[in-house]
Prior knowledge:
Its EC number is 1.13.11.93. This is 2-oxoadipate dioxygenase/decarboxylase. Its cofactor is Fe(2+). It comes from Pseudonocardia oroxyli. The strands form 5 sheets. This protein has a 5-stranded mixed β-sheet with strand order 3-4-5-2-8. Helix content is 46%, strand content 16%. The protein has helices spanning 6-24, 26-46, 56-61, 72-83, 115-120, 140-151, 158-170, 175-187, 198-207, 209-215, 232-241, 305-324, 330-341, 346-351, 375-380, 396-405, 424-431, 438-459; strands at 3-5, 63-69, 88-94, 105-111, 124-130, 172-174, 196-197, 224-227, 263-269, 273-278, 284-289, 293-299, 357-361, 384-388. The termini are far apart. A hairpin with a 5-residue loop joins strand 10 and strand 11. Helix 1 (6-24) packs across helix 2. The structure holds 2-oxoadipic acid (OOG) and nickel (II) ion. The site of nickel (II) ion has 7 residues, from strand 2 and strand 8.
Amino acid sequence: MTTVPTWELRARFARSLSEMYGREVPAYTTLVEVSAQVNRDVISRDGTAAERFGSIERVTAERHGAIRVGTPQELAQVARVFGGLGMHPVGFYDLREAAASAVPVVSTAFRPVDADELARNPFRVFTSVLTTADPRFFDDDLRAEVEAFLAGRVLFGEDLLELADRAEHEGGLPARVADRFLGLAVGAFELSAAPVDRAWYERLERVSSVAADIGGVSSTHINHLTPRVLDIDELYRRMVARGVTMIDAIQGPPDWEGPDVLLRQTSFRALAETRAMREPDGSVVPGALRVRFGEVEARGIALTPAGRARYDDLLRRIDALLAAEPSRARADVARELWRESWPATERGLLAEGLAYFTFEVAAGHPPGRPPVESPVALLDGGWVTATPIVYEDFLPRSAAGIFQSNLSGEGTRHRSRRGADHDAAWMSAAIGRAVHDPFSLYAAQQARSLDRVAVAFVSAGR
Ligand code: OOG
Ligand code: NI
């Protein structure tokens, strides 16, 4: 029997999830259609330059999802499911202080880490876990009640987890077993028809609607699925023209003439969905919850720690300028500052050590061996080509914006209490697997390419 390799399991999982989510949230299908149109138009406008950050096949198939779980145990189980799909935890995001409203979660993203695997299918899932141990959100009594509720539910059955482990150990699954694994995996993220206990849900909602979405129900569900688009400003205009109410801005770096860096995202709230509600008297009545939404993103070059520090500093300066002159449009202020402080070319980013690239020996390079070593000197001398490494991760501030646009009320956060210490090490221990540092992954990819270049020049005896 033929084996379905890991990357194909992941690609099929992303496709089935997309079909399921399209049935559940029809506005998602519209978003995917408009994104595909924009991508086709950009390709015919810009030709191969449009594929600088990934082939059109990759970009068209590319999605990220978001899910939320309640406990470290559930997180460890999710990690097993994603492990079977070749997706590993990368990065730590602390959203507890990042938004104006209360968001009691910390997060990581599960994604492929090897360049080849990313090129085959880059599916990633932003995964958050409820911080029940954080006294700023939960007092001792509520914490005990939430934890007891969560301990009593099963999100992922034993058979699903065993198949995931097998897929991980064997690097794939036999075809028929693969169908079963993917069916169970997609099913685990489907919106449940089970009645929601209204009183319990509303109690958690007073802490945060994110707490209610996670701990107020007996299953998990995909919260959103995000396609990738090559021109997000054009996408935004087309969605508005179709009458979709978008959030009032595109988050992340501004629209400008230089190279795209990191990640730009925008979103809209999906419609309320019918959910059965169990009332305190035991009766079940139709109700509605509005918890999901549509999001779309454009991706650019991955930044080095120095590049990221400059980016974060620019955001602070934009905030300060806007605080001083609130009547100005954020996008204009951002573009102006950007032009002053950000290199306008990929070469500029490389020369200032702000972004990551992969290097290859250039066709028609000068004879002999390069007399220089620095990547930018190799590039300038015509020895190598430099291709940007795409940013594969998330931005805490944009993530907080997404959560924020999804919240129905402020919630409550006791700022006077000390928060629970949750960091990347806590996350690794909870998951039972090391959480990768995104910068190290990009740096290693760049370093490997430089090694290959060095070996090529030496072994050619040049
Ligand atoms: C996740 C929000 C973060 C993104 O794209 O930054 C996110 C959530 O709402 O659960 O998906
Ligand atoms: Ni998202």
